[in-house]
Each structure stands twice: as C-alpha cells, then as structure tokens.
Amino acid sequence: MSEEQKLRQLIIDWLDDNYHFGDAESLIDGDEERSFLQSGILDSLGFVSLVLFLENSCSVSVDRSSLSPENFDSLGKILRFIIPLPNYKLG
Amino acid sequence: MSFTNVEFLFFLPVVFLLYWGGPRHRIYQNSILLVASYLFFGSWHWQLLLLIIAGTWMDYYISRQFGKPGGDENHRKRLLIVSLLFSLGSLCFFKYAGFFATAANDALQLIGIENGLPVLKLILPLGISYWTLQRVGYMLDTYWRRIEPANSLLDFSLFVCFFGQVAAGPISRASELLPQLQKARRIEPHWIATGAFAFLLGYVLKAFVGEMLGESLVSRAFSSPEIYTSLSLWLGVIGFAGQVFADFAGYSLMAIGTARLFAIELPMNFNVPFLSRSLPELWRRWHITLNRWLFEYIFTPLTTSKGWFRNRLDLGMLIVFAASGLWHGAAWTYVCWGLLHAFGMIVQRNWDMLYRSWCRRSRVFVTIRKSLPYSMVSWFLTILFFVLTLVPFRAADIDTAVGYYRGLVDSPGSAELAISPLVLLAFLFIVGMHLIELKPLNKIKTLFYATPPLIRGVAYGLAVAILVLVVPFSKGTFIYQQF
Amino acid sequence: MLVVLGMALALVCADLTLGAFYNVPAKRQVRDGLQDLQRIPNVLVVSSSHGRSFHVLGDTLRKRTDDQADLIAVALEAGKIDAMEWVLHNRLKPMILDENGYVREPLTHMIFGITWWDTCREEQPTQTAHNVVTHGWTASDYMENFSIEGANELNRNYVRNLWRHTFSASALVRTRFAISENFSRFTNFLRVMLLGGLPDDEYQQTLDRWHDDIDSGHECYLSDIDMAALDRFTEFTRQHKLDFTVVLFPLKPDTITEVGLRDTITPFAKALKAYGESNSVRVVDMTLGILDDSEFMLDLDHVTPSGNIKWSEYALDNELQFLLGVNSTEAAQ
Question: Are residues C163 and B469, on separate chains, in Cβ contact within 8 Å?
Fold first, then answer.
C-alpha cells in the first residue's frame, strides 16, 4: 500500500468512526475533490477535529497560514497537502 | 436607504445603467460601484463615512506591509495589533460603550458609587458589525499569508464597502470577493436573470412574509405576553422564528441578487435552516457567513493552537457563541441567547461522542441513527430548541423573557392571536421554500426550470405584477441591520 | 432573453387587463393646482383633499357664468392649516404675485376650505409636515434636505411620490397606491372589487374610528401652530386686498355623535366664527345639513361625484352665491 493509500484509508476510517458510520466512502462517491464543507461530509467542528487528528497521527504541524479550506476541504487536497509536510510519518 | 426603501428603486437602475453603460474596464466599474457605495452609506450618516475611509486606508497600507517577503515578525505583529485595535476598537466603542458603561455603573452602584461613568448614546454606523468582520478576516488572512494583499486601493475600498453587502452582509471571505473585483466584469444574461430572481424572492420574504408575521403575531405577543393564552404565545415565538428568517434570509437574497446584477457573486447566507436535524447543522445553514467567520477566525485558531486551548473544543464553542451573542447586540438577553446555544452545542457534541461509542459496539445503533424516526425526533428537538432560545433574543430584558417562558407553560391571559389568511400564506411560503428542497419535491423545481423560457418569463412577470399590488413599501425596521 | 420577453409581456398584459377592469380615478393634488395656475383665476381655493370638491365647484361656477368667473382649487392631501400655508407661501405666491409683489389680475378672492381636523398639527413643530414633503416639495427642497439629513422616513415621502408620479401611466402602480389609500388592506380591495362592498363589521370599525376621532377632536384642535398659520394666511389676503372666505367643509353626518357635536364640531365652528368677526374674515359653516350620508365615499370623509355636484349647486345658490359675481366691476373694487 502506498503512503497516499494509507493516509486515504486513515481519513476514511476517521470519517466513518466519527461521522458517517460506514458511509464515508459512498459520500465521497469516487470524487476525491468533492468539497467536505459543501457536501456536508464535514462541518467546521469536524474540520478542527480532523486537523488535530492528522497532526497527531502523522506527526506533522499545520501552520496558521495553511489552516484553510484550500488545504483541507477534500480528500485530494488533504493528501496533496499533508504528505509533503516535513516530519510526515504515519503511525 | 435600504433595499426595501423606495429610494433604492431609483438608485439601483441609475447605478446599473452607469455601470454597464460605460467601458468594460475594472477601474471604471469599481469607481462607479465605490461612489455608489459611499453614497449608499452616506445616505444614513455621511459623517461616519470618514470612519470607514480611514479604516480602509489604514488596513490597505498595513496589509501591503504584510505582503512584503521576509519582514520582521514582531513588526508585522505590531501592525496587526494596530489594525485590530482600530477595527474592533471602533466596533466596541460604537456598539458596546453604552453596554459596558451601564454594566460598570451597576457594579459601582453596589459599592455605593452613583453614576461613576458617563453612558454615551451613540449612533451605530450602518453595518459596522458586518464590514468590521469582513475587514478583520482580510487582515488575518494577509497576516497569516493565506492570500496576497490587494494591490489597488480602489479594489480594496470597494471590497470593504460594496453597497450590496455593507448594511448587513453576507460577510465575504477576501478570497471569494477580491478576485472578482480585481478584473473587469461582463454582462451575461444569467447574471441578470438569477440576480433579479434572488432579489424578488428576497423582497417577498422580507417585505411580505416577515412584516406579516411580525405585525400580526410577534409584536403583539411580545409587547404584552401576559394577556395571551399559552397557545398564542407559542404562535408568537414560532412566528418570530419565521419573521427573523424571512427578514434576514430575504435581505441576504436581495443583497446576493443586487450583487449579481453587477456580475458579482456573494456567498449564500441561509440554506433552508429549518430542515436542520442537529445544532451544528443548523449553524451551517443559518447566517452561514457569520458562523463560518466565527469558526474560521476564533474557534479553529484557538482549538488548534499549540497552547492551552488546544483540543478544548467545548470551551472553544462557549467562546464562539458568547461572541456571537455579543455580536448580535450589546444586551444581556443576547449574551443569554449565545450561552444557551453554546450549551446546546456542547450537549450535542457530547451526545454525538457517546452515541458514536455505541455505534462502535453495535451496527444496530448506526441503523437507528439513519432511520426516519431518529431523523424526525432530532429535527423536532433541534427546531424546538432553536425556537425556544429566540425568547430572550426578542424579549426586551431577561425578566420579560422569563415571564414569556412561564407563559408558554401556563399563561394567565385569555386573549387569542388570530391567524388571518395572509398570515397563513406567509407561514406556508416559508414551509414551501423548505419543502421544495427535500428530495421528493425537488422535482417541481427541475420541472419549472425545464419549461420554455417564455412561459417562465410570464410566470415571473405575473409574480412581479402581484408584488406591485400587494407588497407595501417597507415600514418596519430590519431586525438584522441593528446588529 | 426569452425569459425577459415573457416577463415584459406578462407585465404589460397584466397592466392593461387591470386598467380595463379597475380604473383608478385620478386624485387632484397640489401638482395639478400648480399646473392650472398657468392661468390666473378670479378665485383661488386652498384646501385639504376636500379641494377636489372645490374643483367641481369651479366647473359649476364656470358653467353658470359662461366662463366669466373662474376658480382654481389647490388640494393638499392630509390638510392642516400650517401645511397649507406652507404651500401658499412657497408654491402659490410666486405664481400669483407679479415681479413687483402685486397680485396678478384678475385674482380677487381667496377661499380656505377646512375642517376641525386641519387645526390639529401632529408633527413636532420643528419638523416639516409629511404632506408638505410629499406634495409640496420640489427636487431642490429634497436635495437640500437630503444633503443635511441623508435619507430618512420624512424625506422618503418625496421619493415615494416621485416614484408614483413617474410610473403613473401604469394601472398596476396606480392601483397599488389606491389600495393603500382607500382600502388600507389588499383583502379589503378584493372584497370591494369582487363582492361589491365591505362587510358591515368593517364599515362599523371605520365608523367607530371616526367617532373616536371626532369625539376627542377638541383635545387637539385649534392648535397654536395652525392658528398662527391662519393668522399669516389672513394677513396675506389683507395685505394684498383679497376677499377672504373660510369654508368649514361638510362632514358625513353618520360620523358625528352627540358627544362629537357637543364637544368638537359646535365649539370649533363657534371659535372660527369668532375669529372671522374679530379679523373681518367671512366664515361659512357648511359642516352639516347639506350633504347626507349616502353622498360620502367608503372612507367616510370624501364626497362622491354626485355629492360634489349637489354641494356646488347648493353653495352657489346660498352661502357662496357672491362667487357668481366675482368678475363684475363691483366685485373687482
């Protein structure tokens, strides 16, 4: 499994665990760029929880300037943003 | 002047013709809109234009400094503090000076000092609560280097004071609005059609639905709750939920519609909020632009910070909703309203966490959560909670609010509020607006849009004709403009 | 594009259909009076909305004298002497006086048509009356006020009237204003249109309001502001040697209770008579006894077309008979 696939699964599991109870995959519906906020997959509260979760589980630190929907509003955006961060390490 | 004032019927066409009649050039278009915006703002109190212009110039200069590569972090921080002190300082001065002076005097009185502080009675600059937040959002975005600062004072001045939104939002993100203002706009039929439609729908909501509910139910019930039966008091507060929605969602739609006539898209402010099945959902659908601002610039930075606040989500929510309450008005009733919602959100979050733990144990709970009865119950509780919290929101003071709550359970009064056919129509309008967004009924909308354009045009024309006859020029005050 | 076309089509059709179905009678306002004053009459009437009845009086007078005597009526909606005096001073004077300040020929008579209500000033003394803003102001009055105070509820009256005037060709717009003025509510308008009249209880409600108003009229009438304005009016006519008559205009008998008659109507007429005697002004009391209930409109205030003709004929046969001779040499002296 590639890094990207691992992180993807981690996020899906987190969404399932906390919000969608097994429906996360079907909500994303194959569209990696689907907006979390607009499609109701995540709200502002969930957004914060997800950022905190990713910081903890990937050993990264998200800068203020990066804390915006541009980096976190879809599965694709998160993957592209998190993996290149320094110190990124899953687990 | 406001969108429902008769002056606007002259103002809008003139600005429209000047805007599209001249060269299709950014500088020309923005100049027309800026002059119109200053005139619009100045028609309330031109003296306070200086406040907005001074703030605009200062923030423009400071944000340019933020944009420079490198730069001393401490210097940047100092500049940010100056900017925030000015923006939030003037907001506090105009909006809260009276409130805090009164509160301080009450406290001083307890220790025997009478009238220790002078209580100023100030005119509130039009829309200060809205454009202050929009500007602060821009300053933080440029400070955190999330966006490039505006490179033209003209564009930025218009961003701060565009007449479509200066009075009562929607509060735009800089990343949404500035890029639109930084290039020339072209007239296209869809802008005009969707703009006119949004404007008309908003007008009906605000001038007919809102005023109808307000006059026939709300002002009566809240002015003397003691004379009405419990049932009538319920009607009064439910009517108020409808009134606030119609009034503000209507105004927002008119703002969005007005902006579209100039080929500018403003963010949506209401998304059928009465369909919400949880409080977080409600706040994603109700006054969207304010709530996302509060979450983006207060909640998220606090709870994801490296310090003590990290991960203290409940406390974060308490702060956000207390701020929201205070933002709505400098009065204890609003603070009380905000705290009630913070409490509601905290209960909801903890309930959700508890429920998730059950879901992890058994899939049965997932099935229950997705069932219709669960949806119905959570919808009912959400709306009931929202409606009940509106009592302090509307009541003149805490005592009246408490009296109203008592009356809802057991009222000494015997008078009944009558539902006239027009009040019923107003209610049905709101219900219809919500139901049409539900999946089974959404087809009606699709069907309507599939009819030949000529027929649709005729339908719009007839609607306008009825409006001309029925809807009065606004007499009432706009609830959300006073915030 | 087609949508816009359909929309325009529907609007025009709706406008034409409504125009054919319900023709809103044009209401005479200050604007019309000023237009008529392009010619100088023998008699100039200044009045509240009852000036519309005086307009019919003018028609009758011209007919009876073979156009030898002419009367022009200026009707200011919502009346009040102070407001009417504003119109006289600011709008009429420049038209009826020549460059040397003399009254233009052949104007010799002035009539002031009022009821007790016109002496009850509502606004704060420092504020311009709302009907002056609506019907008396010009664009420059508005701009001057706007530049100082911005847009507000008071000067908005001017813009609203401008809007109404600009679109007066549209039956939709005319009807819209007629509804708000004559029926107060859209549903009442529908009832009158479809069922031919208001139900009894609605009529009774309006009547009750009138009873209350007139019964308590003595609390506000003969206000200092309005009486001072009457003084200025009288002074103006004296200065320019104009024959001056104050007419107390008819009221609907039904609206006057015993209490109203005793406390408001009679003392008011008495006070005006006394004013007339001490200031050498002719005061003609036509409040009661000329028109009956059926000759008043649904608002219980204004007179029906047939009532106007009846009143005009009566007036020229009796108290206002002298108008028939205003153009004779005798009267001119």
Answer: no
